[in-house]
Structure formats: C-alpha cells, structure tokens
Amino acid sequence: MISYGSYLLISAFLFVIGLIIMMARKNIVAILLGIEFILNSAALSFVTYSKFITKNLDGHIFALFIIVIAAAEAAVGLAIIIRFFQIKETIHIDEATELRN
Amino acid sequence: MEYTISTIAPIFIFPFMAFVVNAFFGRKLPRQGDWLSVGAIFASFLYTLRIFGDFIFNKFSTDYYVHKVFNWIDLSYGDQFFKIDLGIYIDNMTAIMLLMVTGVATLIHLFSTWYMKGDERYGKFFVYLSLFTSAMLGLVLADNLLLLFVFWEIMGFCSYSLIGFYYEKEEAGNASLKAFMTTRIGDVFLLLGILGIWSVVGNVNYVDIYAAISQGLFEGHTVMGISLASFAAFCVFMGTVGKSAQVPLQVWLPDAMMGPTPCSALIHAATMVAAGVYLSLRMYPLMELGEVTHIIAYVGAITAFLAATIALVQTDIKAVLAFSTISQLGYMVLGIGVGSYNAAFMHLITHAVFKACLFLSAGSVIHSTHTQEMPEMGGLRKKLPITFLAMLLCTLAIAGIPIFSGFVSKDRILGDALYWGLYAGQNKVHFIVPMLGFGGAFLTAFYMFRMMFLTFFGEPKDKEVYEHCHHEHFEFNRTLPLIILAALTLGVFYSGSLTGQGEIKIFPRAAQEWFKILVAAPEVKNFESYTKEKFDFADTREEKVWEKAHYHHQSGYAGVNPDNEEGIHHAHINGAVASVIIAFSGVLLAFFLYIRRLMSPDFFVNMLKPLHRLTTHRYYFDDFYIGILLKKGLLVFNNALAFLDMGIYDRIAIDGWAKVNNWIYRASKWFDDVIVDSIAVDGTGTAVNLFNLVLRVLQSGKIQFYFVVLIVVLSGYIWSLNFIS
Hints:
The complex is a heterodimer of chains A (101) and B (725).
Chain A: H1 4-24, H2 28-54, H3 58-88
Helix pairs in contact in A: 1-2, 2-3
Chain B: H1 5-25, H2 34-56, E1 65-74, E2 83-91, H3 92-115, H4 122-141, H5 145-163, H6 170-201, H7 206-215, E3 222-223, E4 226-227, H8 228-243, H9 252-255, H10 261-270, H11 272-282, H12 284-290, H13 293-312, H14 317-337, H15 341-369, H16 385-399, H17 405-422, H18 432-456, H19 463-468, H20 476-487, H21 514-518, H22 532-535, H23 565-596, H24 601-607, H25 609-616, H26 621-698, H27 703-724
Antiparallel strand pairs in B: 1-2, 3-4
C-alpha cells in the first residue's frame, strides 16, 4: 500500500514544477501548462486527503470539478493567447503589459 | 331647489370659469371670448332670479337664512379647537344683493361689448370683468369674514388692473397704484378687525359672530385700553372707509376714473365700492355693540357733504359722477350710523342702479364726443336722445325727485338721520349730521343738473365736438342697458308708496314695501341659542308666514327706537317735505344759473373765493397726503431710516463685521498655510511619493514578477501561521 506521504510528495513535486514553469518561462503557452500542473497537484492533494483522512467522496468530487475547470480555463486561456498573438505577433509574456489594445 | 353649496356655487363659478377660459384661450375664441363673459354672467343672473324669487315671494320670514358650510382647515387636536369653515350664507339681503350685482353686471358686460369695441385689449377687459364679477358674487355669498376678505382683495386687484387698463398713460398707472395703496390702508384695518373678532369668537362666521354678541362673549376683552368690540368694529369700519371711499380715504376714487367707463360703472359705482357698505351692514350688530355708530354717522355725513361740494366745481363729466358716488356712499354710511339699516341698504341698491346707468350714459357721451370735459359739450340732447333720456331719469333719481328711486331711499335715510339728531334723546349737537345730509342733498340736486345742463342743453360750445358726434340710433348692446337701467330708477320697483315710507300708497298693501319688510338688521338674540355643535351642516330652514308689518310696528327699523312712533313719524314727514323742497330748489338754482343765465356762476365763485379754492383743490387731501404725508413726513422718516441704515447699520454692523471677517481671514490664512497646506497637503504628497517608490517597483506589469510576489507573500503568510498557533 502506497502511503499517503508519497501521494503528497508527488503532489508537492508537481506544484513546485508548475510554479517554477510559471515563474521562469516566458512563453505564455508554457505558463498555461504550468497552471495545469498546479491544478493537477491540487486535485491530487484533494484525492489523497479524501482517500486517507476523511474517507468520503468529497475530495473526489472536487477533483472532478478541478478537471472541468482546468479544461474550461485552458480553452479560455488558449483563446486569449490566440487573440494576443494576432495583435502582438508574439506570445512572449513580457509583451503583455498593456490592458488595452 | 334645495339650497346646498353645490347648487349655489354656480352663481360664483360661471363667471369664474369664463375668467379662466378667457384668460388662457380668449385670443383663440371668436370675438375674443366676450360672449363667454356675457353669457356666464347672464347665466348667473338667471340662477339668481330663482333664489330671489324664493326669498322674496313670501316664502320665509325676514330672519330666515340659509347657511351651509364645508370644512376647509381642521387642525383641532384634543381640546385645542382650530377649525376654519367656508360656506355660503343667504338671507334676504344676500338675495337682493345677488340680483342687483348679477343684473347690473350683465347689463354692463353687454354695454362693454359696444364701448370697448375695437380696443386693442378688448379680450383682456372681459377677463378682468369676469374675475371681478365672480369675486363680487363670492363676497356676497360668503358666510364669513375670512372668505369675504379673500374676495375683497381679489376685487381690489381687479380694480387696480382696470384703473390702469390704459397703462400707456402715466396718470392711469399712478391712479391704479394710488387706488391700490389707499384701499390697502383700509384692508389692513379690516384684517386687524377680523383677527380681533377671531380672538374672541374663535370663528368669523356671521352667524357665530351674532351668536357671540348675543351671548356677551365680547364683554371684558380689551385692546390697548378700549374694549375689543369697539376696536374690532372700528377696524371693520375702516375697511369700509377704504373700500367705499369715505373721508379720509376718499382720494383714490376720483383718480380711479382713469379706467374705462364700463369698469367705472361696475366697480367704482355699483358693486365694489358698495361692498364696503355691505360689510358694515353685515357687521351692524358689532358696530352697535362697539358703539362706533356715532363715528360712522359723522364720517358718512362729512363725506356726503364734502364730496358734494367738490363735485360742484368739476368740469370732467366722470369726475362729477365720481364725487357724486363718494357723496352717495356717504349717505349709505350715514344711514348705517344713524341706525337706518334698511334704508342704507335700499340706497345701496337704488344707487347701484342709477349710478351704473349714469356712468354708462356718460360712457355713451364720451364715446360719441371723444371728450370728457363738459365745457366742450352742450346741446347734445338732439344728437343723443336715448342717452339723454336715460341720464335724465337717473339724474332725477339721484337728485331726490319724488317717484324716483333715489328719493325713496335717500329720503328715508335723511328722515332717520333727522330723527336720530332731534328726537332720539341725545345731545342736540348731533343735529349737525342730518343738516350735513340735507345740505349734501341740495348740492347733489344742483351739481347733477348742472352736469345735465352743461352736457345736453344750451348751445354747443365746441362746434367741432358737436359736429363730430354721431346721431344716436338704437343699438342693441348700447341702448338696451341704458333703457333697462333707466326704467329701474322708478321708485315703484323698490317701494309701493310714493315716499318709500308708506305715506302715499300706490299699490295695495299686499305687495307694498317689500324691501322694507324683507331687510332688517340681524336680531342677535335670535342667534343666542346657537352653538358650535349645531353649526355643522345645519339647515335652519323654518317656513314662517310672511309678516305683513305695519310701518310703525315693523322690525325693519333697527336702531331707531320704535317706542317713539311720534318722533319717527314727525321726523319722516318733515324730512320728506324738506327733501322735496331742497331737491327742487337745487334743480331750480341750476336751471337759473345754467339755462336762464339769470346769474353767472362766476358771481358765486367770486363771492366764495376761499371756498372755491378749497373745493377745486379737493380740500387739499391729495396735497396733504402726497405733499405733506409722503413728501415731508415719509421723507423725514426715510431719511431717519437712511441714517439708521447708512450711519449705524452700515458703519457698525457691516463695516464692523468686515473687520471681524478680516481677523478671521488672517487666522484662517495662517491655519491654511501652515497646518493645512504645509502639513496636510504637502505631507500627503510626500507620503504618496514614498508609497509611489515602493508601488512603482511592484507594479511592473510583468506578470511573472507578480507570481513571485504572490508566492513570497503566501509563503510568508503560511510561515507566520506557525507563530500564531
């Protein structure tokens, strides 16, 4: 039986990877990927705690919600990136300094 | 017909609606809406006829009245009673008055359609006439002094507007202002009187006032040392003095002739000036209680005489009529003063008819000749036969020739005055009052016939005027009013007997003396049991058999002691004989002076030079008011006020305040500069600048930097939780 510490370790690992991607990469698509990492780490944490500590289905339901939200967020995020690219002809994050135009 | 407010109100509402419609849409209506005004007042007239019929033809007793109220303001709370009711009060006097007002007003409206034709403000004239008529009818119908006062003021306004109708002329504007301001003095007194009555009665209904008088509520109340009843009665009478142009406030009425002649006929002869007398008649029990009747008698007698003397020397035809109006109003007031209630009211009605007719005739003459100066006229009777006839009848009436209405009413007043002066058991000094009355009557006969002779007889003095004058032929709206009014100057319409006192009877007893029997001073003891609880919506209808009162035993002679029949009879017989002699001698004198020219009028002028100067200057009333009271008295007062204003108020209050302000300014400037500006404002700036340094770094626009900050902050937060728990 895999201990829940292992699950949490993987979750933390994924979170840190996502965080570093978000902070370090300049590519917006990559940053979006980092966010996915973070969301999945959170989902993993939920499932872990649900499975080992509260022992009910709350965490699982949350995980499902997170997956749905992640999908929606990816769609919206990608749409924003496409529009951004159409305007700026780049997806470099440092170009996204203006709120208008 | 049931008498309720809604069935009576149309009398007042018809002309008022005509006013409203004409005021806003008159220009768009055909003929500028004159037909609406005429039709409205004619409708009121028809409406009034019915009331008149009900009240006159033997239905009710003399003290029958209809009193209906509705609640206007009710601020009563607990035992605090404050309530104002408005309503209508109709008794025999109101019924007669209503018929007179609507009838005369209808004819004058009709006449105005001829007289004002082609005037550039033709429609506006009818707007004012309608408003005025509705106000007058409202005043007559009103059941309390407050409502009366409201209509009183509306009439004052209409009078003001109509006097100043030709406002292009400067005199007209001044005259309207003068009339308004002079009557205002009386109005202020009237308001004071109303408040005085209110303070005792708690209401100003006629009925409540009568009840309060009979219950003796006025006893024991004093104002500034005089009894409140006297004070209130005097103040109310001052309202009459202002409105009815009595001495010393008579100065406005002659100037009021600046207005169009029909408005002079309606407002300044028949109705508005009579409203003042009407008020005094309504408040007659209060006048008696306040014991101001002697003042009233003297004011009336002096007015009657003085105005008559001034009329002797006037050359303007309307000025003669104006002074004769003042004089005749003086007779009415004199009648009230000597307790001749019925005769005073009768004179009000007869005077309204014949003076309206005189003014309309004068209007007819003026319109034809385009001049008001009698010395430029003469010989007009061939050119204006109908006008001449109408004016002749009215002149006979006002001069007091028997069988005409003026004789009936004026002679009764003079007879009562004679009784009051001689037989009433008081100081014989008061005999001067009937003497002034008889003297005025002589002068009236003289100056009225002087006017007639100068205008219609003799040779034309100004050929141009005479040639210019068109021949008069029958015109519906010009001649009909003159004919009707002239016919109504016959005495038989007012009294069944020749003298108006039952001596020489024309009609059998059943119909005779209706006027004298129906109108009587309110018997306050009839109202004694009257209380406020009964008052609301009370119908006091009591059908009584008409009292066929005998001359010596009737209640119509309020004020005159009926015990002394002998005295009354003597006084009236002597008075009647004296009146006839005096009237004819006045006419004869005028005839000798102006037709036969036995003597030149200049003979009298030279003989009585100081008097002539006095009368031509109208006894210096105007000079006194304007020259001394306004220019000297008021100017000194003004200067004192100016000194108060400039020297004291300006110097100390304004300039001192400026200095104080200066100090405050300096203090607040220091506060502003040092505290607010340096510390607060600049300090804020510095603080913002500091924050700016920090925030500028944070607000880099680099999203990933935000992430870092976010992570750092969150980590710090989570880390700090260790220390808390």
